[in-house]
């Protein structure tokens, strides 16, 4: 779980404890995950459970943990 939290913190480039779309896209790209913009939009909507247009650490962990 600590590793997942660490990945979130690295992706959170402005340090506000939320990921916006650009941070998520850049984070995936920097991790070697290749997705076009539309696929990233789909993933972002899945991660953003509350529809706030940001992903908090809880949403991130739930979305990632389901696929481990």
Automatic annotation (TrEMBL):
Pfam families: EF-hand_7 (PF13499). InterPro entries: EF_Hand_1_Ca_BS, EF_hand_dom. Residues 1-34 form the EF-hand domain. One of its GO terms (molecular function) is calcium ion binding. It comes from the Eukaryota. This is Calcyphosin isoform X1. It comes from Solea senegalensis. The lineage of its organism: Eukaryota, Metazoa, Chordata, Craniata, Vertebrata.
